[in-house]
Design the sequence.
């Protein structure tokens, strides 16, 4: 960082030729250390060549940072606001990124500097990681974990050749965790000899504010924890970054607890003390939840209530019966229908686990090995199903929304044998004739999408891991991975989750899955939606389901334009 931030015309041309030789000829084109550029620049170039990062990409990743309220942004924005006046007439941009290289804030007052930055896509929401855009004062800082100066053609991407960037990492002081980067960027003709020093100083100011905020936050959490711990029951205090638990509360914790509980409280947390069920690592628990009302950032105390033992008159078999579904509401609906001898039609979107629930429904009625048939695929399905039903074997009619569908008479004939019968269907994709048929012969029970029952995701993951062979079954996920799994919207529902868990377990072979092991779409951090946003997202998703995926009809049903619908879909991660 003590190098001269300027390059002479001869140095610029020599640097450009060295980069082009390495990119064009491959990693063996130049022996290490012979490129004529600083070591960290050559190392970055070589990483980019090895990863086949394009020199002139036709697309740079973009993700709307939205109203980012991370610890980094809360600490950085007062610092940047204070410096705006000092930089008012200086053609330099202040750029803040998160730990993935996503630009979350940019400020420059001088118009010509804004134009330079905009031409390079160096604006809020763009991905400036090394894998996205090559050597630069954001992505290379995050890889090297120390201050970096990148001058003109030392940038890997041709779009950035006219910029000089001095960047510094932002480190969380009390954990050593990198939370982002800060950089000063300007055109090569506007370079200042002290820009690297200033970037480092501003970075340390941001880190100092992170430490101050952490001290305040931890003090208020500790006070709330001491108050709730006096109750003598399992006690938890949680905010956006931390969970505190007493000895009794520790029995219900795991690496997935924070993203699971915090997401739930953000969406459903009460405005005053309230009794409610909260999701913990070992399932749903009754608790008294109370907001920590001291004027600071949102936080909640959670007092766990003792589990109530079953009534003495409750038959032991009923207490121990296998559940039809992980969701309590669905389980009760199926149990009620089975108790009254009704045919159950399990309905819902693709991948929600309809077949599994239908098989459990039939098995509960004494048919442990039911026949599963798909009428739209097998012209002789009825004869096969009738023979199985006559023999007392249960039958599951799968995907009856597909054409040709069973007739009412055929389903009633199967029911008349006395054998357990169940159906599965996606009624949102069915015509009125199929809906009428299903409603005439069965009681419908709709399965929710995984995004609507994300509190059950940890137990589902553990169940799926338990079904994997050794050593895959011993695979565990890091807390950061649980955070991403809880934030993902799971458009493919349980089927997508099952594929993801199998993929990660197969690769981990019993080890711990980290962030870098996740697929790209899961690796990107998605902010937690508030209550109103969650309701809005569900309304958009439901309109699309009701319209069979037709976006024009969904937009009309919502009373919004198609462009607004597309924007909402991108914002909420709806595919």
Sequence:
């Amino acid at each position: 960082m003590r190098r001269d931030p300027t390059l002479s015309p001869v140095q610029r041309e020599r640097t450009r030729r060295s980069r082009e030789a390495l990119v064009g000829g491959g990693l063996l084109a130049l022996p290490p250390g012979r490129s004529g550029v600083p070591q960290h620049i050559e190392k970055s170039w070589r990483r980019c060549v090895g990863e086949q990062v394009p020199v002139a990409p036709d697309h740079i990743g973009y993700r709307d940072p939205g109203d980012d309220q991370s610890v980094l942004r809360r600490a950085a924005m007062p610092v940047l606001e204070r410096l705006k006046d000092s930089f008012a007439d200086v053609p330099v941009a202040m750029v803040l990124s998160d730990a993935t290289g996503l630009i979350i804030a940019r400020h420059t007052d001088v118009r010509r500097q804004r134009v330079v930055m905009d031409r390079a896509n160096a604006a809020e929401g763009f991905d400036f990681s090394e894998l996205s855009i090559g050597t630069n004062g954001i992505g290379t800082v995050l890889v090297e974990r120390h201050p970096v100066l990148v001058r003109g053609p030392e940038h890997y991407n041709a779009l950035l050749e006219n910029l000089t960037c001095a960047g510094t990492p932002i480190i969380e002081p009390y954990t050593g965790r990198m939370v982002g980067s800060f950089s000063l960027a300007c055109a090569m003709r506007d370079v200042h000899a002290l820009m690297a020093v200033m970037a480092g100083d501003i970075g340390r100011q941001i880190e100092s504010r992170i430490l101050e905020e952490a001290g305040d936050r931890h003090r208020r959490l500790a006070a709330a924890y001491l108050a709730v711990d006096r109750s003598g029951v399992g006690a938890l205090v949680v905010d956006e970054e931390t969970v505190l638990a007493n000895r009794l509360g520790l029995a219900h914790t795991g690496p997935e607890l924070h993203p699971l509980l915090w997401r739930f409280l953000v969406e459903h947390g009460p405005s005053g003390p309230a009794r409610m069920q909260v999701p913990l690592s070992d399932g749903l628990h009754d608790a008294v939840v109370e907001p920590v009302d001291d004027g600071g950032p949102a936080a909640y105390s959670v007092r766990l209530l003792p589990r109530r033992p079953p009534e003495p008159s409750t038959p032991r078999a009923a207490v121990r019966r296998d559940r039809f579904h992980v969701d309590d509401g669905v389980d009760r609906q199926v149990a009620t229908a089975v108790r009254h001898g009704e045919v159950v039609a399990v309905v819902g979107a693709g991948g929600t686990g309809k077949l599994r629930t239908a098989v459990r429904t039939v098995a509960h009625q004494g048919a442990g090995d039911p026949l599963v048939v798909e009428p739209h695929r097998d012209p002789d399905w009825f004869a096969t199903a009738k023979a199985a039903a006559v023999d007392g074997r249960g039958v599951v009619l799968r995907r009856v929304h597909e054409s040709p569908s069973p007739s009412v008479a055929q389903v009633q004939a199967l029911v008349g044998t006395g054998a357990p019968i169940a159906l599965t269907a996606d009624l949102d994709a069915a015509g009125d004739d199929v809906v009428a048929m299903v409603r005439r012969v069965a009681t419908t029970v709709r399965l929710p999408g995984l995004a609507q029952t994300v509190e059950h995701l940890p137990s589902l993951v553990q169940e799926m891991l338990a079904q994997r062979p050794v050593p895959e079954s011993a695979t565990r996920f890091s807390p950061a991975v649980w955070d991403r799994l809880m934030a993902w919207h799971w458009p493919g529902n349980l089927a997508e989750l099952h594929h993801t868990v199998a993929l990660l377990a197969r690769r981990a072979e019993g080890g711990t899955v980290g962030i870098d092991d996740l697929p790209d779409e899961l690796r990107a951090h998605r902010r937690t939606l508030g209550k109103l946003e969650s309701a809005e997202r569900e309304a958009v998703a439901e309109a699309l389901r009701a319209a069979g995926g037709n976006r024009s009809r969904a937009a009309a049903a919502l009373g919004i334009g198609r462009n607004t619908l597309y924007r909402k879909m991108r914002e909420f991660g709806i595919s």
Q: What stands out?
A: Residues 18 and 34 are 9 Å apart (CA to CA). The radius of gyration is 29 Å. The chain has 22 helices and 17 strands. The mean pLDDT is 87.
